[in-house]
Amino acid sequence: MQTPLSWQGFGQWAFLIAAFCFLMLTGWRWERRRNAQEGSARAELGAFIVSGAWALVVAGTGYATLVAQVFESFRTFAWLSLAFVLFSRDGRHTSVAPIRPVMAALIFVETLQFILLMLNVRYGGNAAAQAMIFQISMLFRLLVATGALVLVHNLYAGAMAQQRVALRWSCIAMATVWGYDLNLYTIAYLARTLPVELEAMRGVAQIGVALLLAIGAVRGRSALRFSPSRAVAFQSLSLLVIGAYMILMVGAAQSLTWLGGDAGQLAQLGFVFVTSVLVLAILPSGRLRGWMKVMLAKHFFQHRYDYRSEWLRFTRTIGRGGTHAPSLHERVVQAVADITDSSAGLLLCQGENGEMVLSARWQWPTADVPAEALSIDRVDFFEKRGFIVDLDELRAGVNHQGEDAAVPQWLVEEHSAWALVPLLHFDRLVGLVVLGRPQVARKLDWEDFDLLRVVGMQLASYLAEHAGQSALLEASRFEEFNRRMAFVMHDIKNLASQLSLLSRNAEKHAENPAFRADMLITLRNSADKLNALLARLSRYGGNAAERVEDIDASEVIRAVANRYNAPGQLQVHVTHDAPCRVLANREVLEQVVLHLVQNAIDASAEGMAVFLQCNVDGLYGTIEVIDTGCGMSAEFIRNRLFRPFVSTKQGGFGIGAYEAREMVRAMRGKLEVESREGLGSRFTVRLPLAAAQGLISSIEGESTPHGKKVA
After folding, report:
1. Which residue among 416, 452, 468, 617 has the highest number of C-beta atoms inside a 10 angstrom radius?
2. Which Pfam family would be a valid example here (predicted)?
């Protein structure tokens, strides 16, 4: 008799500590309820309060009392309410049909406990009736624990991989509550009595539940979004696993009862402890869930994929709109990654010279992608073969169609990269999707290749349509711009003609010689200015390269600096102005530098200086415009800086940077840019040296045989 008394005392202290833990957790959560969603905060607080009250009642009165049984039912209702709230936060309780009926059935079965309690009071003196009521009560609690575990499993397994962190600790806590109940009531049903030892250890389990919830609350929560797939089959497999577990439990418990005495009790405790640890350690594993999905696809379905569900998800991903929706390029990567359960991906698209460059990242910020992700000579392989590359096979030395020569080395060394999917549109490579390794890496089979190939063609058409629309919009805006310029030039020509006629008439008819001379000077200056403006507006034909001459670039930067520097106010600093003779059109070069300096001033804080310098670099002369302003991101430089009609300035036309680059190119030069956000920018105009013109021409002639241009 000494052992039950010691276990009973231990259980009282354990439940008392559990009640204190839930009380502290309730107070802590109450202080932070405003940071959580309203429904989930109320459900959590309700579960904490009722669990603490139940633990306090059990510590004071014992488990078998009427009030303890009532509070346990209330505790069950509270935890079921929390599970239902977590399901309903994205509407999954309405989209997945079994959720609501299962929840209603569990509440109904738990409600029957109140009827059993009244019957127990009514037939308190009848031992046979009480034994039968006890067995029925244990059976009902077994049903509730089993159904609740199924709900918890599907709540966690149905969440997207990147959102499971928000559910992890709550699901582990609920799995602990009902997992221990499942073990306890199975043994109680078979032994026809509640083991005192397991009942006492139940308080320790409740302490663990409170600690798990505290860890989850400290680590925080993110917004929950769910994406169920093939739910019915997976839930059926979950029920099968839980059923097998129950059969194992029943057989093991029945075998343990044969031992009898203290040995049987210790064996029961050890079995419950080991199985609980295994369940908590293995079931939440992403690798195990992935393995179960693969086995399910292999043995329960003729095909791996549910093509209807995949197509619906694909369409929803690509068609997602709104101001906060990702860009089309990011959605393209996600649409491919969702098919193979990849957690990250990259999209490579064609650059200006035909090479493949990074266009978008999806959940892969650490991938180190070079500026030229895939050289132009490797593009031909993917265009001709449309081959989907399994990078794990490539690393293992398998070479099916010569893909080892087409895949760049940085992809081979990036071990997180798993597969390479080409996006072909009419035998033209529009893009390449690099898929990150899923949690359960597997060998791609024929069904993967077929589906990825079809999806790649569909996505390529979307990208080609998007590029075509962008080009059409750009062409229409160019047409509008040219039409406006034509009107402007026509008006200016008329004005210039009128001023010229006025000047000629003034020469013939003005009577006052002084007035006539002054008027003539004014009119002629105006005519000269208008003609100069006409000359600048007529440069869009690309004739600047025909009018280059030997000029000193240092004189250009000094002239630009003088235009901005007022007396007593030095805004543009010339840090190096050694003579640098280059081949350029002075007027065009001055216009380019003026534009770059004005942009640098606009990007800098008031009072911050802009620096100009001129240097000789090999066969070229350089003019550098440096500022310490807000800077630009690599994505902005790559996709928006030199794109016409895209401007960050209010009311800007967005053609300045594009025009500056084209002017420099027309003079056989280059416009380069380096920038870091928050640090500033450096624009470099690189032009051929006048003294090196012959050498540059000979080098370019040797590098372009038969007149073919090399990108």
Report:
1. 452
2. HATPase_c
Return d(Cα 304, Cα 297) in angstroms, integer: 5
Which tens digits make up the pLDDT trace of 52-75? 888 888 888 877 788 888 888 888
Domains of the chain (ranges plus CATH)?
Answer: 7-221 (1.20.1070), 309-472 (3.30.450.40), 549-698 (3.30.565.10)
Read off the pLDDT of residues 249-290 as tens digits, 9 standing for 90 and up.
555 555 555 555 555 556 556 656 666 655 555 555 555 555
The H or E element that residue 423 is part of is: strand 417-425
Please give the full DSSP string across 582-644, using - where no structure is assigned: EEE-HHHHHHHHHHHHHHHHHHSPTT--EEEEEEEETTEEEEEEEE-SS---HHHHHHTTTST
One-character DSSP codes across 427-494: TEEEEEEEEEPPSS-----HHHHHHHHHHHHHHHHHHHHHHHHHHHHHHHHHHHHHHHHHHHHHHHHH
Residue 424's φ and ψ, nearest 5 degrees, are -110, 135
- 3-class secondary structure for 507-523? HHHCCCHHHHHHHHHHH
pLDDT at 228 > cutoff 80: no
DSSP line for 524-584:
HHHHHHHHHHHHHHGGGGS-GGGG-EEEEHHHHHHHHHHHH-BTTB--EEEEEE---EEEE
Give 678-705 as a 3 state SS string. CCEEEEEEEEEECCCHHHHHHHHHHHCH
Encode burial over 108-137: b for 16+ CB neighbours within 10 A, e otherwise.
Answer: ebbeebeebbebbeeeeeeeeeeeebbebb
Look up tokens 């080395």; give the residue. 409
- pTM of the entire structure? 0.41
Partners of residue 582 on adjacent β-strands: 551, 689
Classify the C-alpha dihedral 555-556-560-563 as positive or negative: positive
Provide mean pLDDT across the span 354-358.
89
Helices within 89-163 (DSSP H only) = 92-95, 99-122, 127-157
Per-residue pLDDT band for 226 (boundaries 50, 70, 90) equals: very low
How many whole angstroms separate alpha carbon 683 and alpha carbon 681?
A: 7
Q: Which two tokens stand for residue 178?
A: 């009902």
Q: Is the pLDDT of residue 694 over 80?
A: no
Those residues with Cβ within 8 angstroms of residue 357's Cβ, 6 or more apart along the chain or in another chain: 348, 349, 350, 351, 371, 372, 373, 638
Beta bridge partners of 226: 159
Are residues 612 and 560 in contact, defined by beta-carbon separation less than 8 angstroms? yes
175 by DSSP, 3-state: which?
A: helix
3-state secondary structure of 262: helix
C-beta of residue 614 within 8 angstroms of C-beta of residue 554: yes
